[in-house]
Amino acid sequence: MSSRVVVLSDTHLPTRAKVLPDMLLAAIGEADVVMHAGDWVDVATLDLLEARSRRLVGVWGNNDPAPLRDRLPEVARTTIEGVRFAMVHETGAASGRERRMDALHADDADVLVFGHSHIPWDTVTPRGLRLLNPGSPTDRRRQPVGTFLSLDVSGGRLADVRLVPVPSVAGLSRPV
């Protein structure tokens, strides 16, 4: 068995963009699991992803108000095709991240998904924990384009991890 997973974070709707890009919505519709690592900012985005996802796993971020925090955990854990995932919004500074995450997730995860920085990240800690940050599909900050991750999970391992570039969503007027 194989599962397709879409990983996104830091959508910041409607403050940084008005809508999610069509290509991302198409990927969400085709995914077996969608993971959102926080900073949704509005409840409408959570409602949209719940409606469009076969299975949604999400956490709240530092910019998420009480209504989102009431519906989402700070840390989420799930197993997909035998791979143990943990997800949080923030992991702290990039310097020392691998060591800190090894200490925090020594026994509970094979992959840690996080957001917050809007900067894509894909490393492996000394213990073997895979650290993944999808960047942001709607607020690229200092990155050349917005991004999200597409994963294939099969046979107890990540069979494929792809960073997907997202064209600018500026000027789109379709409501969320």
From TrEMBL:
Residues 4-154 form the Calcineurin-like phosphoesterase domain. Transmembrane segments: none annotated. Its EC number is 3.1.4.-. The keyword Transmembrane does not apply. Keywords: Metal-binding. GO terms for molecular function: hydrolase activity; metal ion binding. The keyword Ubl conjugation does not apply. InterPro entries: Calcineurin-like_PHP_lpxH (IPR024654), Metallo-depent_PP-like (IPR029052), Phosphodiesterase_MJ0936/Vps29 (IPR000979). Its cofactor is a divalent metal cation. It is an enzyme of class 3 (hydrolase). Belongs to the metallophosphoesterase superfamily. YfcE family. This is Phosphoesterase. It comes from Cnuibacter physcomitrellae.
